[in-house]
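Ticket #4471: structure export looks truncated?
Reporter: QA, pipeline team
Priority: medium

Steps to reproduce: submit the single chain below to the structure queue and open the exported record.
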Amino acid sequence: YFSYPTPTTRGPSTDVVVFTEFPEGWFAHYDAEGYDEIDPIGEWVVQTRLPFAWDAVTAGLELSRRQKRLLADIRDAAMFDGITVPIHGPFGQVNGVTFARGRAGDEPGVAPETLHVARVLAVQFH
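Actual output as written to the record:
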């Protein structure tokens, strides 16, 4: 779960309210590499209100070398794919829930019904 306190807060993870089960050390690495500045998933969160699969966002983009390294680092941290559910609040507040798969799946991609289930779970948690 994450919450950007203001619409412009997309900085280091210390500026963002986070409850997480991500691998230990992930956010320290993310911050050290300055990934908040180039994260296409983080950018998409503030632009959409619909749940999305990470690969659906990144597949259609022309990624920079740093962005490709970010995606490789995500996989190296045993987060093989994921779904993020943005939850927009008043005054531009952006919250959300991310579900990451901790092992490589047999089939790539996310079924549409999984996005709906993720949204229900995320909104209920929020």
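Status: closed, not a bug. The export was complete when the record was re-opened. Leaving a note from the reviewer for reference: The radius of gyration is 14 Å.
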